[in-house]
């Protein structure tokens, strides 16, 4: 090498280092000056006032997502990069632009390419953003395939919304070069970081339905896919809702709690052996337990050959083999935890083959596995009762026009064969409604043959239940709401926060000072955790302000005791506990009320609260310690109930869990004979 070449190369390296260092310094987060923070905070107040005036307008959420992102950034972050500051200023501009365009034509409705949109969540009334990619070939008069793409793990910080929105917000005008892909592409935020569990799960389905209301989507060709946490979410949602997707495309995602927690990474927390009620609760979440449902929805998985999480798909493959299935797992040679373009292209080609055929909504054979009534539906089947929650339940049947032959169901006490059903609880236009022409003439369950009268073949459903050791056809076709655990009302406590809820604080005089302190501190803690990690304002009212509409439409989360909270006093006679100023009886054990509180979930026993939960003294049973670490830790900690020992010595929500567990299938404690 000549001296000239050596000097040239050294100069080039120094130039690259200089540019890199300069860029790094430009992007290094720095504290926000006081004057700038105050100006941005004033802008948030003004924007929220304008949004309040426009909140009844269609698609106001498309403007509100920018203002909300700015508000959360100022609440939780102190240091910002130059890019962050640009996004914060842009958030003000974009909120104004969209508010100005709401009364007239909304140009983003006709845009092709990337667009940032939002909806108002039914869960807590918050505005939640999502990204959408509209291809050049989209035509409003032609139903199009929809790919739902779940993002990977990302730390929940103040700037989370604005950084997410920035990936999709390229303005509202025409795009000169939109993509030519043959599908719409939805990217839900999923409330940032929870592996699409709880309200994060609801967020995915609410986003899907919002897109279906705006665009012409072929609901028989909805694909679910994602990378890393997005792949875990694809396994989780796809195998538990196997009738909603035409294909799954998980790329490098975990499928269980215990073995994933043993990954040799320094930040991972090994779960280890858990108390029995927590071990049972994992059956609600671990996708591995639902592997049999891959026989309903095809999964085309991918994994890097050198991915540290490679074992996850090996475990899923073993689980599928035990179910008589074969996993499709495309291995990317020599790659780690990244998407390999060649492997991904093959994955998309195979997904495309399934998507082009569309989903068969009325399959002639059906084998469905669940462990909880939270996941109870599959095409024309709905499981309505279990013998034991968090134990494997299996339904296998073959159907013809005139007959259904069912193997003796495992761990199922009641089920329905449906002639009409919806695949979405959020559908407002009926586009997710499907039906059989007629119900069968005969239904065989094991060795029991049941004839169906002609007039009942046009009913909404046939309901079968086990009575005195024999399967019987029930007289009516309406699901009985007076029974025990049932779909949507099966627990655990954490399930109450995946559907609309309202926290209720007491305004009366508590029976015991410790209960008063604990209830206030517990509600404060939940409010802070919900705001930070589930990205919304916690809905709260005083007990004196709760309305009949609230009772009908929301789960009531009651904090306090029967003295302080009038709603606890009202629901107490319908709960399986005894509570006086002196004693708390839970199951067969008594505790002094002066330093013990119950935390529990149950169907709300009050008239007018059909299909709603009531919860006492609990938000999520996982806390900041789990929310701030790793998403696989967000599993139920208390089950359906817990007895809390409280001190009341401080203003903090300090509790000791004395006992915890699950109610039986009748929402009662199992008592000794």
Textual characterization of the structure:
The chain is of the alpha/beta class and 673 residues long. The chain is built from 15 helices and 32 strands. The strands form 8 sheets. It has a 7-stranded mixed sheet with strand order 24-23-25-30-29-31-32. Strands 3-4-6-5-7-8 form a 6-stranded mixed sheet, sandwiched between helices. A hairpin with a 6-residue loop joins strand 3 (113-120) and strand 4. Helix 2 (34-54) packs antiparallel against helix 3 (61-76) and helix 3 (61-76) crosses helix 5 (160-166). The longest helix has 25 residues, at 3-27. The chain is globular. The protein starts with a helix and ends in a 12-residue tail after the last strand.
Question: TL;DR?
Answer:
The protein has 673 residues and is an alpha/beta fold.
What sort of overall outline do the alpha carbons produce when their principal axes are compared? globular
Oligomeric nature of the chains: single chain
Sheet having the most strands: 7 strands, mixed
**Helical percent range?**
25-40%
Q: What's the total count of β strands? A: 32
Radius of gyration: 27 Å
Low-confidence stretches: 1-26
Biggest sheet, strands in spatial order? Answer: 24-23-25-30-29-31-32
Taking all residues together, what is the mean pLDDT? 94
Estimated structural class: alpha/beta
Q: Give the number of helices.
A: 15
Give descriptors for this structure.
6-stranded mixed sheet, 15 helices, 32 strands, 673 residues, alpha/beta, 7-stranded mixed sheet
């Amino acid at each position: 090498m000549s001296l000239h070449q050596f000097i040239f190369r050294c100069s080039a390296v120094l130039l690259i280092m200089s540019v890199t260092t300069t860029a790094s310094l430009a992007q290094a987060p720095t504290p926000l000056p006081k004057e700038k923070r105050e100006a941005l905070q004033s802008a948030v107040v003004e924007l929220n006032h304008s949004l309040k005036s426009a909140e009844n307008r269609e698609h106001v959420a498309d403007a509100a997502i920018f203002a909300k992102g700015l508000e959360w950034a100022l609440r939780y972050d102190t240091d910002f990069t130059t890019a962050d500051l640009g996004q914060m200023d842009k958030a003000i501009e974009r909120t104004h632009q969209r508010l100005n365009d709401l009364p007239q034509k909304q140009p983003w409705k006709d845009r092709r390419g990337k667009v940032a949109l939002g909806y108002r969540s039914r869960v807590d009334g918050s505005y939640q953003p999502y990204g959408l990619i509209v291809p050049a070939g989209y035509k409003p008069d032609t139903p199009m395939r929809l790919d739902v793409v779940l993002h990977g793990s990302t730390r929940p910080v103040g700037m989370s919304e604005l950084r997410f929105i920035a990936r999709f917000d390229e303005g509202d005008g025409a795009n000169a070069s939109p993509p030519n892909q043959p599908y719409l592409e939805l990217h839900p935020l999923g409330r940032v970081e929870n592996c699409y569990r709880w309200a994060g799960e609801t967020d995915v389905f609410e986003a899907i339905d919002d897109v279906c209301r705006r665009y012409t989507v072929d609901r028989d060709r909805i694909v679910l896919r994602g990378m890393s946490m997005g792949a875990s979410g694809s396994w989780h949602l796809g195998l538990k809702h196997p009738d909603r997707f035409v294909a799954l495309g998980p790329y490098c995602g975990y499928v269980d709690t215990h073995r994933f927690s043993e990954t040799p990474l320094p930040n991972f927390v090994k779960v280890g052996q858990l108390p029995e009620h927590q071990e049972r609760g994992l059956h609600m979440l671990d996708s591995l337990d639902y592997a049999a449902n891959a026989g309903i929805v095809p999964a085309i998985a991918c994994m890097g050959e050198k991915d540290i999480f490679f074992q996850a798909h090996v475990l899923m493959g073993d689980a599928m083999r035990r179910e008589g299935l074969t996993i499709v797992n495309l291995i990317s040679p020599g790659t780690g935890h990244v998407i390999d373009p060649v492997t991904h292209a093959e994955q998309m080609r195979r997904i495309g083959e399934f998507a082009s055929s569309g989903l068969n909504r009325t399959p002639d054979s059906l084998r469905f596995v669940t462990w909880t009534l939270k996941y109870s539906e599959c095409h024309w089947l709905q499981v309505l009762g279990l013998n034991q929650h968090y134990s494997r339940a299996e339904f296998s049947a073959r159907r013809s026009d005139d007959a259904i032959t069912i193997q003796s169901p495992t761990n199922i006490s009641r089920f329905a064969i449906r002639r009409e059903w919806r695949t979405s609880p959020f559908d407002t236009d009926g586009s997710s409604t499907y039906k059989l022409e007629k119900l069968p003439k005969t239904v065989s369950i094991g060795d029991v043959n049941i004839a169906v009268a002609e007039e009942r073949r046009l009913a909404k459903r046939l309901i079968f239940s086990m009575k005195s050791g024999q399967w019987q056809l029930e007289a009516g076709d309406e699901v009985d709401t007076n029974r025990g655990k049932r779909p949507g009302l099966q627990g655990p406590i954490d399930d109450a926060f995946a559907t609309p809820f309202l926290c209720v604080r007491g305004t009366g005089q508590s029976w015991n000072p410790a209960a008063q302190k604990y209830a206030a501190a517990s509600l404060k803690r939940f409010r802070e955790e919900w705001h930070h990690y589930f990205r919304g304002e916690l809905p709260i009212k005083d007990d004196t302000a709760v309305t009949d509409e609230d009772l009908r439409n929301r789960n009531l989360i009651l904090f306090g005791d029967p003295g302080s909270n009038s709603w606890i006093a009202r629901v107490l006679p319908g709960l399986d506990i005894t509570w006086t100023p002196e004693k708390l009886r839970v199951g067969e054990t008594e505790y002094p009320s002066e330093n013990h509180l119950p935390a529990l979930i149950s169907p709300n026993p009050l008239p007018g609260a059909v299909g709603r939960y009531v919860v006492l003294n609990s938000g999520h049973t996982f806390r900041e310690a789990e929310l701030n670490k790793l998403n696989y830790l967000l599993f139920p900690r208390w089950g359906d109930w817990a007895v809390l020992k409280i001190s009341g010595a401080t203003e903090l929500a300090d509790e000791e869990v004395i006992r915890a567990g699950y109610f039986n299938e009748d929402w009662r404690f199992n008592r000794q004979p």
